[in-house]
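Record filed below.
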Amino acid sequence: MCPGSGYDPITKNWNKDIDCCNWDGVECDHSTGDIIGLDLSCGMLQGIIHPNTTLFNLPRLQTLNIAHNAFVASQFPSEIPRFSHSLTHLNISDCIFTGQMPSEISFLSKLVSIDLSNNLPGFQIQPNAFNNLLQNCSRLRELVMWYVNISLVLPAYLNISSSLESLDLSTTGLLGKLPDNIFNLPRLEKLDLSNNYNLTGQLPIMTSTDNNPLKWLDLSSTGLSGEIFNSTRHLKSINYLALSNFSLVGSLPESLANLTHLITIDLSYNMLSGTLPSWLFTFPSLENIHLHYNMFTGGLPSNWLYLQSLRTLTLSGNQFDGEVNQGSTIPPSFTQLINLSVLDLSYNKFIGIWDLDTLFLSIPNLRYLDLSYSGLSVMSNNSNWYANPAFTHLGLASCNLTIFPKSLRAMINVAYLDLSNNEIHGDVPDWAGEIGGNALSHLNLSHNSITSLPQFQWNRLEDLYLQSNMIQGTFPLSVCNMSHLHCLDMSNNSIGGSIPHCLRDISSLQVIDLRTNHFHGTIPSFCENHNVIGGLFLNGNRLQGALPTSLSSCESLEILDVGNNHLNGTFPGWLGGLVNLQVLILKSNNFHGRIEIPSKVKLPFPSLIVFDLSHNTFEGHLPDIYFQNFNSMKDVPKEKTYPEYLSFYGLYFYTIIVTVKGYDLQFTKILDDYMIVDLSNNKFTGDIPNVIGTLKSLITLNLSHNSLNGRIPYSLGNLSEMESLDLSWNQLTGEIPQSLAGITALSVLNLSQNHLVGRIPEGTQFGSFENSFGGNSGLCGHPLPKMCDPHPREPLVEVDSDEEESGFTWRSVMIGYACGTLFGLLAGFLMLSFGRPKWFTEISDAAEHMILKRRSKQRYIYIGR
């Protein structure tokens, strides 16, 4: 890696007036004067390496290192064979190359070390070139290609240099099975095949010998399987073992106790269970233990407190439910852990109380501590103000902390601080602004009882979480000085005044959550100058006026929630052009008028999954043109192995409150396939559009408390994922479609207070909806007490209302059917004999007019009984 900011380009001191052998990064053969080595790594070089550059005119060049430069999106030139007789070391890692590595690289037969790693995702080497490289380079000792796209199946037997000591093919798209001899290469000390998810099959057998040289083995995140622990017990020289995300199950086998040279063991993200054995903490050189996100239980053996070599211990995300120091002192003594720098016990169920002051004094090198949701309680009497100044990460969420420990003041370089979900009361001390200095990037003080804030001094803060406290007063304007702020959450407080317009000037701001406060005035013109906002949450305030049209420039906007305010104006159809918008909540405001589409918006709201306009005064017909374009709601949801949520970079999960199944529910995480349409409590009229039946992913549909009329569309039966349907308090007529009974997912149905008639559909769960049909006097059948006529009427026939009024009904037609037949025969005879008379023509024209009129205006009547 390169040094921090402030270093100079390596060519800065290159002077043509002095011998180039004295230039920085240039090595010469003093006997011949030839340049044999170029180390231009971290040289701040950029641009393109042209084929005619003098670089390729160095016939005896042995070492070429141009790593960590910026040859942005350029290709490595194919003139590389000019070094075929001399080059032994080549390093072009982290140079932002793209495209294809020249196949001529296999001509470099004298290569001892080659590193092509960590360029752009499109950087690749052809499988045949890779195979030729392995075969031709008989002296190769180090081959590093991580993040290079190879995408090949390795041969069943790896024909490779017997001198190979290090092979790194991680994240290269390897396929198929491993070569049979991969673990038995005579000099191989490092093997990294991690992050090749399409490597499958059983692990090859490792040779049972004490002379196996393998010291580093990483098979994390592959599709391999087999008795890995039975094989690794032969690796007596191993000091780095990583099998993270390897589908391991069961307890830790005792065979691992033979690996006495272990320095690092990483078995995280598996399904290992049982308690931790005491022998794990007896390895004399063990420094790093990563067992996070497994299923371990119980407490920790007391001897972990005496492993002086231990530097890192991560046990987060397990089910530990005992003491951290079984059979030892309470609270534990950490005086032996003199080298410990990283301790993560978060997300467990440990038992015990720790003194923070004692902890910091006992472990002088500690710089990363996370006890959040560990089950442990933390106390501090502020008797000690010391903490390691190099501290970078402190997580104490849900640790029953009651005060701001003064030892935080010494953490001048901490970047991550989480004190959320504790019992901190009152004011944040003024000195808190010194914590972390300019290093602090993440601060979470949410879910406490904080009443006031100091002046913020963290100009490089990226995430600020202050939600669910008791903060009063006006918005702290010092927040506007945080020019790197990404996420701001101050929801669920008592902050008043207006939303400051300076917030719109923070160009990096992507999430603004100010819900449930006392803000009034108008909404600032967000996205007027910057359009990176992904989530804007202003629900539950006292905001007035119209939505600012500048929101139409928020191209990244995914969620807009301005419900429960006093906003007014017509429907903001201009938001329909935001192709990333997934959630739109305008509920409980004073919006009014018809819902129309601006002429400039051709395909409105293509990504919408939550559409909530409830409790306003919108009128006119339902917006069927919008329903036609809700493309995200039309696809039947696919089976997923795990739920996916709308989030900000997978770290901050969006929260909304919507009415589902008759209740206001808070979704702390929004599933990306939970589709909701709520247009209830408005003044909509007309029919329910048939097109709603195409929204096959819809989970909740609420059209209640409007003035909708007409029949319930049969097409609603196509909504197979529907769980909640509310059409109550409208003026709907006709029968309940039998198709609704086929929605097996339906758990809440409300069709009450309409003008529905006929028999309630039978089958599935319809009989369990006891309170779903009241206020429809024409309905009968279970679960209503009103039974249906055991002799049902004949089928419905469509007739024209004017026909009934004029007396010309189908009853009349049926009565006169026989007479009509005789009359028809007579009329036909007369026409054949004398031609078509005038009186018959007039009758025919009148009948044709009557039929056309009946087709334009129909209603239903019963025949018979």
Q: What stands out?
A: The first strand starts at residue 26 and ends at 28. Residues 487-638+671-780 form a domain with the Leucine-rich repeat, LRR (right-handed beta-alpha superhelix) fold (CATH 3.80.10.10). The CA atoms of residues 401 and 422 lie 5 Å apart. Residues 838-856 form the longest helix (19 residues).
